[in-house]
Amino acid sequence: MSDLDDFKATYFDECSELLTELEEQFAAIEAGERDSDRLNAVFRAIHSIKGGAGAFGFSALVGFAHAYETLLDYVRDGRVELTDEVVSLCIRANDIVADHVNAAQSGEALASDYGIEEKTRFDALARGEIEDELGGGIVEEFDIDFTPVMVDLDGAASGEALVDDVFEAAPMAPAEGQWEIRFTPHRALYARANDPLLLFRELAALGEMRVVPRLGQVPPLADFDPFAVYCSWEITLSAPELSEAAIREVFEFVDGDCDILIAQAGSTPLAAFDKPEMAAEADPPETDEPDLSSLLALTEDEMAETAGPLASVESFAPEPPAAPVGEQDSFEEPPGLSFAALAEEIRPSAPPPPAKPSVPPAARGLPAATEAEDGHRSVGVQSIRVDLDKVDRVVNMVGELVITQSMLTQQMDETLRARYTELVRGLEVLAQTTRGLQDSVMAIRAQPVKSVFSRMPRLVRELAAKTGKKIKLETIGENTEIDKTVIEQLSDPLTHMIRNSADHGIEGPQSRRGAGKPETGTIRLSAEQAGGNILIIVEDDGGGIDRERVLKLARDKGIVAPDITPTDEQIDQLIFAPGFSTADAVSDISGRGVGMDVVLSNIKKIGGSVHVRSWTGKGTRMTLRLPLTLAVLDVMLVKVGDSPYVVPLSSIVETMQCSRANFERVPSGGRVLQVRGEYVQVIDLGQRFEMAMANAPGDQFVVLCETEGSQKVALVVDDIIGQQQVVIKSLEENFERVEGIAGGTILGDGNVALIVDVQGLRTTHIHQNAA
Amino acid sequence: MTLRVLTVDDSRTILAMLHHTLSNAGFEVLQAEDGKQGLDMLKAQPVDVVITDINMPVMDGIEFIKNVRATGQHNSLPILILTTETSQDKRDQGKAAGGTGWIVKPFDPEKLISVIHRVVH
Fold first, then answer.
1. Which of A351, A603, B68, B76 could be cross-linked to A608 through a Cys-Cys bond (beta carbons 3.0 to 4.6 Å apart)?
2. Quick one: pLDDT at residue A704?
3. A277 by DSSP, 3-state: which?
4. What parts of chain A have a pLDDT lower than 70?
5. At a CB cut-off of 8 Å and minimum separation 6, what does A220 contact?
6. What backbone phi and psi angles, to 5 degrees, belong to A379?
């Protein structure tokens, strides 16, 4: 059933938002902000998760959420105190709810007793509260069972929640005979928009019906309140198969707003049920029993003519204080006038019992009309939910538009430019609009990193519990926005990095104390925008990378040749080297590296880079540099041999022309270029990509690029064509991953150009040199 | 005449399911995410029946019903409260505020439709 799948998708989507909300609220509550707004938000989140879960029959989730919700309700009411213990119980409960949601989503069942400890604790807290209230007595009414009813979208009636919940205890009547019903509404019946006519209509659908009105209570015209009910009715229903519960169900909504007596004909005389009100009533004005239609036809005359005694006030149920309408004092005009005016208004649309102010909203006089005129006010921030697919289609089309636009610009040669100034101006406007369109489309896909960050507190809690360390997580800049696809790819790498910090970075409480640091280690997770990039930084105040061991391990594994002495920074970076971390042994020493090559490859996949810096004894900082968007890149177009390549503009420092003679050889066989006193590693793209040289090895161009950690690298190319924007196409999706290449793009002239992965080139270069 | 139903709930899942059930039954469906939005929508257009949740941010269901009734223009507008069976006191509060009837969550589509017919002319 695809509808159900759709609803489930919506539900899980909603759940992940609600779980994020829970994390946030509890972060604040933990920090001491224990106000009712937060508690209400928490309650609502759990309530919504439970509500949806019930609809889909996720009974384990419902059961747990229900116990949790009950406790929250008590906390909200102030009946259970929000102690630190309760807060940490709730935080654990959030994790359990998240696990239940995940289990429901993946279809994998959790252990049947999962979370039972916490659930028992909830029950105990809530029960303890009730026992206190009842002086320690045994609570019989406290019922935490919640039986979910599956929503049957095909409409086959299966759930009987409505009937059974309310009338479970109602005895079934014998399956034959007539029913006699005495229905005496209280005044408040109309205040809640209930209407006897509708009840009669529903009864009439159950069997053959006769209705006798009792009009003895109708007051003189001057005392008549059109919002009050003065009538009562005696109904005979011929429906032998009908149960009393079915009849009661009809009156379900007016329960408490009327006196209702139901008896099977012959079994008990109705007179036995007579209430004082009924007894005081005058004889029925009609001797023969009119049916519903004649009753309705008759009421208006009756109304005008009958001047029965005014009902005694105490015979009506007390008005709830909040009941906003239906009270006589809401009329300012003299009663007589008021009645006439109202009767005028009511007549065309209200055939049912006396003076029901039932006017369809559309037919309401002036007030409605004026409301309608200024009615189209906006309702807060409007938003729509759109399939990501649809947005992707737009993004792709805008990408193509960008290409076409840059193609047009390229095709304009100087002669054309000089001749068609209008065309040039038009192209400039087109370029601007295209850029704007592109930014706007990208903004649609942008999302705060919050959705990923919010999963981390739990991870840290679990790691702290597992390792026996004390760890605190700080998050900064969680509202920084990145492209949705980037965010989706961010979760795994971040988890790895935080796990590393907790596992290998932060020391145990004792050794921290020994080092003169606070027992509780801190992991700081931050996000910020830096130009066209987003920086995500995971920083810890742990012991830093043990370089000696990392280097030793790297040498043992043949990642670093024995005769090479890498700089500290290069050693730090080694933890990302493929093959470095596959051995479990790494996690036993203080070196980092478990899964870090996975981090690197994941980050590279989304066009980002990772850089690590470490300070012995003080901590480690890992910086993820991510593109704002995956789709469009500002690049410099260069030529290597006959082929075009593009270099991301964000990494270029400068370009220069220089002769090969300027390159100097270093003993390892590599070449360097001296740029203003600084030696920069040279990578000849022609050599690297094994391209035939188009130019004589004379003057060449050098593109000076900056990589992570401010290390520069000089790329040697044959020609520099210019700057432009390109739409990135994945090589992996269309071909396979190529070392040193970040992707491909289609140029304005239809040619394919490869995007140079500067960071990747440099890393492979080091390894090649080292090997 | 197509009946117009205003549904007020902060849960997108419930709104989606209500929308599905109600529009399949031939109703016109308006949706609001909280009582405040619901109130604004009621001001903007006539509605035949309202289905509202109780627990909502900004303006909860009870407050919403009170506000609807307080205008005096919606005295005869049936307002159904979407509730769980555990919230009997909330149901009572809803009724005191002027709620017409209630629907137990999770709802059964057929029952939902019959309940609506029970309160609408």
1. A603
2. 84
3. helix
4. 1-2, 128-177, 265-382, 531-532, 578-595, 629-632, 692-698, 708-710, 763-771
5. A307
6. -110, 85
How does strand A533-540 pair with strand A521-530?
Answer: antiparallel
Q: CA end-to-end span of chain A, whole Å?
A: 58
Check B86 against A66: CB less than 8 A apart.
Answer: yes
Residue in B56, B101, B109 nearest the CB of A153 = B109
Residues of chain B short of pLDDT 70, as ranges, are: 85-87
The pLDDT score that the predictor gives to residue A351 is 42
Q: Which residues of B touch A321 (CB under 8 A)?
A: 96
CA distance A308 to A218: 5
Using DSSP's 3-state secondary structure scheme, residue A501 falls into: helix
CA distance A526 to A633: 24
Give the CA angle between residues A49, A52, A54 to the nearest 5°.
105
Virtual torsion, Cα A634, A639, A644, A645, nearest 10 deg: -50
Rounded Cα–Cα distance for residues A192 and B80 (Å): 10
Residues of A in contact with B17 (CB under 8 A): 7, 55, 151
A158 and chain B in contact, CB less than 8 A: yes
CB within 8 Å: A193 and B100: yes
The answer to whether A359 contacts chain B (CB < 8 Å) is yes
Please tell me the distance in Å from B13's CA to the nearest CA on chain A.
Answer: 5
Q: How far apart are CA A83 and CA A91, in angstroms?
A: 12
Binary contact (B96, A14; C-beta < 8 A): no
**pTM (global) more than 0.80:** no
Burial per residue of A422-453, b for 16 or more beta-carbon CB atoms within 10 angstroms, e otherwise: eeeeebeeebeebeebbeebbeebebbbbbbb
Q: In this complex, do A158 and B72 lie within 8 Å of one another by their Cβ atoms? A: no
**Beta carbons within 10 angstroms of residue A280's beta carbon:** 15
Which among B13, B76, B119 has the least Cβ separation from residue A14?
Answer: B13
Q: What is the 3-state secondary structure (H, E, C) of A663-684?
A: EEECCCCCEEEEECCEEEEEEE
Give the pair of three-digit tokens for residue A120. 């028992």
Which tokens go with A395? Answer: 């993004």
| For residue B106, cis peptide bond before it (omega within 30 degrees of 0) | yes
In A251-291, alpha helices (H): 276-279
Q: CB B57 to CB A44 under 8 A?
A: yes
Q: Name the helix (H) or strand (E) containing A208.
A: strand A208-214
Tell me what pLDDT residue A645 has.
Answer: 92
Q: What is the pLDDT of residue A693?
A: 60
Check CB contact under 8 Å for A149 and B95: no
pLDDT at residue number A492? 84
Tokens of A320: 């709830």
What residues in B contact A202, CB-CB < 8 Å?
Answer: 117-118
Q: Please give, rounded to a whole number of angstroms, the shortest distance from the CA of A138 to a CA of chain B.
A: 19
> Residue A25 has which token pair?
């609220």
Question: Nearest-CA residue of chain A relative to B56?
Answer: A44
**Structure token digits, residue A496:** 């790895």
> Please, which residues have CB within 8 angstroms of residue B1's CB and are 6 or more apart in sequence?
none
User: Does residue A384 belong to the interface with chain B, where contact is any CB pair within 8 Å?
Assistant: no
- Predicted ipTM of the assembly: 0.85
What are A638's two structure tokens? 């260069």
pLDDT, tens digit (0-9, with 9 covering 90-100), for B73-103: 777 788 888 887 666 777 778 878 888 888 8
SS3 content of chain B, % helix, strand, coil (to 5): 45, 20, 35
Flag whether residue A174 sits within 8 Å of chain B, measured between CB atoms: no
Which of B85, B98, B110 comes nearest A324 by C-beta?
Answer: B98
Where do we find the tokens 């970076």?
A573
- Alpha-carbon distance A141 to A138, whole Å? 9
